[in-house]
Amino acid sequence: MPFGLISAQGEFQRCMEEAFEGIQGFSVIVDDIIISGKTIEEHDANVRSTLIRAREKGVKLNLQKCVFKCNSIPYFGHVISENGIHPDPQKVRALREMRTPNTKDELQTILGMMNYLARYIPNLSSINQPLHDLVKQQQFKWKQQHDKSFTNIKESICSSLAFFDPTAGNVELQVDASKFGLGATLSQNGKPISFASRSLNSTEQNYSQIEKEHFHQYLYDRKFTVVSDHKPLQVVLNCPISKSSPRLQRMLLRIQPYDLIIAFRPGKEIPVADALSRIRWKKK
């Protein structure tokens, strides 16, 4: 199947569901299969049924990518185990590794991000009060109470992430690029699902703003909106590839399989991605 086509993944999903219809404990999202059971015996029986059906339908499995009898597995942004479903640590790594601010400007950027996520953080006003007090002070001195407040807020955000529903719509990717880094927030129906960020190397720092702008498993084969504070991105997406620079041509070819639209919003309206791109991360 030519996976360069926008509709390919949806068709593949339908074929997989039809091929394994009726198998107990079987679930699939495109080519990621999970087989579960309440007991070892039930699990083994479900695995056996799946393998028999795969042979009947001519479905080949890559043994190197198969893992059997696990107590927990990462699956579409979450870790599924006998204890329930929890956010995958990789989803919140960008947030947890955000270092403490060194200036008032950096702190105000972080507070803007926190206020944007306030409806998902219980008791935010009381948790972040020490940080608001610090902004008002003439001299910026980061103390233990500020560190505690900062850590508590990050943990509150991480624990409140939504579970991604592959069948639901309204997926939005907010992106931002600063001189030194990239930041992104993925949300569904307005609630954050995952965060990402990384620093730029010396070569990438010389890119124009339009060229600086992971989430493949969430975004492939669905309509979604990319939100950026860089308005020229809207023009670039509709520009003929032949009229773009070689580097932009490669970028445009890479996103061709995705069904996306680009929307412009001022930076103050996408504070999470903005903060993730501007605040440096903890060094390993």
From TrEMBL:
Residues 1-80 form the Reverse transcriptase domain. This is Reverse transcriptase domain-containing protein. Gene3D superfamilies: 3.30.70.270. It comes from the Eukaryota. The lineage of its organism: Eukaryota, Metazoa, Ecdysozoa, Arthropoda, Crustacea. Pfam families: RT_RNaseH (PF17917), RVT_1 (PF00078). The keyword Transferase applies. Coiled coil: none annotated. One of its GO terms (molecular function) is hydrolase activity. Keywords: Endonuclease, Hydrolase, Nuclease, Nucleotidyltransferase, RNA-directed DNA polymerase, Transferase. Residues 171-258 form the Reverse transcriptase RNase H-like domain. Transmembrane segments: none annotated. The keyword Cell division does not apply.
